[in-house]
Amino acid sequence: MPIYLPIAEISVNALGLIALSAVIGFIAGLVGIGGGFILTPSLMLMGVPPMVAVATSPSQVAAASVSAALSHFRRRAVDVRLGLVLSIGGAAGTIVGVGLLAGLTQTGQADLVIQLMYVAFLTGMGTLMTLESVRALRYPGHTLTPRRRSRLQRTLRALPLRLRFPASGRYMSVLPPLVLGAVVGALAAVIGVGGGFLLLPAMIYLLRTPAKVLVGTSLMQILVVTALVTVLQASINRTVDLVLALLLMVGGVIGAQYGVRLGARLRAEQLRLVLGLVVLATAVWLLRDLGSVPEQPFTVGVVR
Amino acid sequence: MRAVLLILALLGLTAPALAQNSGAAVRPQTGTATSTATAQDGLPIAVTDERIDVRADYRGARVSVLAINPTLRGRLRGDMAVVLRGPPQTMQVRRKRPFMGLWVERDPVTFTEVPALLYIASQRPLRAIASPQAVVALRLDPLSTARLDSPTPADADPRAYRLGLNRQMEERGLYREYIGNDVRTFEEVAPGIYWAHFQIPANAPIGSYQAQVLYFRDGQLISSATRPVEIARIGVEQIIHTQAQDRPLLFGIAVVLVALSTGWLAALVFRR
């Protein structure tokens, strides 16, 4: 069933797109991630212009995180104050990111920067996921707890502007969550991902957020950032495709529901290992693409 | 529909006063060509679709153009060519250069008046029926049609940029030349009467296209006629695009609301 995307200006197979987003949503639900980092490059491979893919994916991540965020709110498993600080940082990062993308488009470097950032963070994340799952498989039942008196923690404690976060039981500077939120916001804007893969480990290791509010608080930040990215991309770069977004949402939310259910019954470590290796392979493939002699010595783009 | 058009066009041939002289439909961009190139003297032309609607199920469109040799009733002389031309675009061409082990796009060069699409159909190759001057004046050679609008880097050949642009457009299926007699592309239905069938791909931009019939004799353009072909969004496609362009902020908020309600609905449906 072909459908014409009004902003991307290409014709795509609607059922194929829903199936793709359902599979990605399923994997995302299974492993407990947003899935934006698989979705955005897949859209580019399908022929969606990179700028449209980057701007439209976050709305799907927003749709996928709503239900989970709501249920965490109901169970009071959210540190609202920490979530707000992260979101303020996220808003700043988002604005910078969208502006950066607009500037890069004018100099013609947007595609290269998007690709390079994908290589960098797919490599990082793939390595992290692989190592973590290998460790979890070798030492079952062993969970990582951050060391209390590391040098990093001492440095963080010396920072000014401290604030009490009762829900997390922490008294800490607002600077680390602000900066962390900003980085995640910028990533969401430039490469079209939710940023949960970065936010969760950073919250564990840097902010030492307790497990009971960890996921809920990160979901709150991801929701705010992806919603804001969508509004900004639409109003500044005009690259959000509503029809594409709808197709992605429908597939994504359904896939995620089944993924979460199956994920509860499977060993997450093995899935994580496979996914980590797939992510690493993608990074290598992308890098090879950037480094090999191009088939076409020229690229062409329409100036609007 | 084709049969009706054929009859109409033949009528036009016998009664030139009735023929649709489409001189008024010539778009400004052809005005830059020389006076011989814009000669309009009632050459018959008919187009199956002057307006192509882009709906949600748009997958490209097929446009057929009827061309009739004006010497039909006597001894057939000269050659016919049919052109479908997309709206002029400004395009940036960048070359890929190695930079720290990576291939980086650099040195952008801007071209204006790049036809978004250029299809040319004729029985014999264009070079054989039109003089080089006529080809340039009529802007039929994709390589000389685009106008260079910025300086090229000192160490680069401007022609290489043009070739790069051309190759990309060919690869996207937007520049094509159809030569010979083929039922699917350029068909001679009777001596001197031709149908040119063009398949416009879905990735061709939306805008004002034009179909042109050209009659050449001894390499010179004797007469020509032009009809507009409008590709336009309609219905939901039109509404979404207009809103996204005219009210970008509200549009963005609307997308977010759709996302939130979709997620919320899914949670309701799947909760047991």
Report the mean per-residue pLDDT of chain A as an integer: 82
Separate helix tally of chain A = 11
The rough form of chain A would be described as: globular
Note the total helix count of chain B: 7
Largest interface: A-B, 57 and 58 residues
Q: Please report which band the strand proportion of chain B falls in: under 5%, 5-15%, 15-25%, 25-35%, 35-45% or over 45%.
A: 35-45%
Specify the structural class of chain B.
alpha+beta
**Low-confidence regions of chain B:** 8-39
* Estimated radius of gyration of chain A: 19 Å
Topology, pairings included?
The complex is a heterodimer of chains A (about 300) and B (about 270).
Chain A: E1 2-5, E2 10-13, H1 14-31, H2 36-45, H3 50-74, H4 80-107, H5 110-138, H6 151-157, E3 162-165, E4 170-173, H7 175-191, H8 196-207, H9 211-237, H10 242-263, H11 268-291, E5 298-303
Antiparallel strand pairs in A: 1-2, 3-4
Helix pairs in contact in A: 1-10, 2-3, 3-9, 3-10, 4-7, 4-9, 5-11, 7-8, 7-9, 8-9
Chain B: H1 2-14, E1 45-47, E2 51-54, E3 61-68, E4 79-85, E5 88-99, E6 102-115, E7 118-122, H2 126-129, H3 132-137, H4 142-145, E8 147-148, H5 158-171, E9 175-179, E10 186-190, E11 193-200, E12 207-217, E13 220-233, H6 236-246, H7 248-270
Parallel strand pairs in B: 2-13, 7-9
Antiparallel strand pairs in B: 1-3, 3-11, 4-7, 4-12, 5-6, 6-8, 10-11, 12-13
Brief digest:
By secondary structure, chain A is mainly α. Chain A has helices at residues 14-31, 36-45, 50-74, 80-107, 110-138, 151-157, 175-191, 196-207, 211-237, 242-263, 268-291; strands at 2-5, 10-13, 162-165, 170-173, 298-303. In chain B, a hairpin with a 2-residue loop joins β5 (88-99) and β6.
